[in-house]
Specification:
Elements: E1 4-5, E2 8-9, E3 18-21, H1 29-41, E4 43-48, H2 54-67, E5 73-76, H3 94-100, E6 114-120, E7 129-133, E8 137-141, H4 155-173, E9 186-190, E10 212-217, H5 221-234, H6 242-250, E11 251-256, H7 281-291, E12 295-299, H8 303-309, E13 315-321, H9 326-334, E14 337-346, E15 349-355, H10 374-385, H11 389-395, H12 404-412, H13 421-424, E16 439-442, E17 456-460, H14 462-481, E18 489-493, E19 502-503, H15 518-528, H16 544-553
Parallel strand pairs: 4-5, 4-6, 6-7, 10-11, 10-13, 11-12, 13-14
Antiparallel strand pairs: 1-2, 3-17, 7-8, 8-9, 14-15, 15-18, 16-17, 18-19
Helix pairs in contact: 2-4, 4-14, 5-14, 10-11
Length: 562
Amino acid sequence: MNDAVNGTVNGPAEDPRLRLLGSQAAGGPQSQATEVLRRLDETEVVVVPPDADGAARVAVAAFVTMIARLVPNVVVDAEGDGDLPANWWQATSWADLLDKLAPVRPCSDLPIARRITVGFGIVEPVCGVYVGGGDWNVVLADRPVVVEVGNDHALGLHAAACLAVSQVLIEVLGDLGFPGVGVTGVVETNLIDHGLHSVDKNDLASAAIEVARTAFLGVGSVGTSAIALLATACSPVLSSSVAAAAMAAVMEVTAVDNDAFDPDRNPYRYPALLGGETGMKSSGMVERLKELGLVAEAHDVNVANWNTAKAAPGWDGVLVSSVDTLSGRLDVADVLGKMTLSAGVSGTELHVQWERFADGFACPFCDYVRADPPLTQAGVYSQVTGIPVSRVLALLQDGAVLEHSDVDTAIVAGRVPAHRRDALVAAPISDLIRQAYAEAEMRPQGVDTAGPGGDVVAVASPQVSWFAGTLVAAELVKHMLGLPTLNRRVDLDVAGLPAGVVRTVPSDNSGTCVCHSGVRRRWYRALYGRPDVTTTGVGVQLSPVDAESASASIRASPILEV
């Protein structure tokens, strides 16, 4: 557990809950960061779990694992001995769960100044935030709501728990610039069609379960969350439902990542971790899946090397892509998987999207093809950081990290203060620019934070990764069970409230994306047959207008045709 200093966890520059961006001059973000930490450290969150089935109680446990990384004072107001059902974190009770989280929990000796009660399925009006839902429904309210009974996996309740974390932060940090929207009344959505309404799971007709080959390309904060939630829904050790047993019997998981866990940084954005995890990410997650009775294999290499070493071309199954680099997304597209489920996160915003290849809609690389050329991007990064363009180009490569000389150059150029030197060495170049991943950038109203010297405090937001993982796991479960899947893409801001925005993104129309390549198109047709333009995600009918536009855009580019 971190040592308390002057009533807070370390100083603002060292506290792992925050990342300071900008000049950090006296009276700037340093003072704001101090106030952010003080607000968090003097807050007590009381969690009232429901008297409900095991799946629902595990979803509440997920809320505890997220909020306990941000607020030192967390109390679970449970009746009886507080036993927990089998769960990903291997905690046997609420007290045991909080003990296991000790390596990532802040501590403070500040007196409690505010108490926020979060109730799950609580019918009495005694809470500040109310959470409800079930397998597919997501409910958040400022008044009592119910938790559904008979849940198999409670993925909808997991999603609601993520929104509840943001509601707590809005209450504590809203006037300091936390970018959130407080709930008023009852807000409902669901993980089937993402409309602003609930669904009756008894009305959902499932089909025969098919073999589900799933490859996780990237095992970062989103990938680990999705794997943990998929195991929660499908592992015979974690779930006794008939559906879980059926899915476990046909599921084959492959994890691909050449990165290792960083015990000093990862746990604060990785709700699936308890702190202290080391070793390769893919091997660590696969070992846990095997312990939970699932078939899985790990490849501790990058996507390109895994792709070239496979016994056969393509991937007749689902690729789950959470890589966030230009070259990494190109490698994902080059796998030529039959279906790709992509997840992207920027700050507290995220999207999840189904992608096929050359079917008239966005492929795994279409969103990236219009990115600035590397040299142009390097020029911008050079201006922002003070590092020469030639060195920036090297730092933009996968796996490259800042060296002492790089950070010293940025310090001399006045881009970062000297006291940040040790924290930035061995970090990616993105830590030198204003780019937040699963973090909420706090920008108080009336304060100018524009430009490379602007002052911003970014607060770790583990609920963003868990929400993205929930959406991915929900789509995979629906795919396996033959339930209606997402109609291409959903966009959300976890700091806000569900907007019910589902959209179809057309393919890149410049003709320069890899999905316009004649060679790749012929390979895709040889592997899986001609793309079906009557489908979007995995079986949702297109309107005649959409189908016509998809047919028109499926033609290969004469520039890339081979």
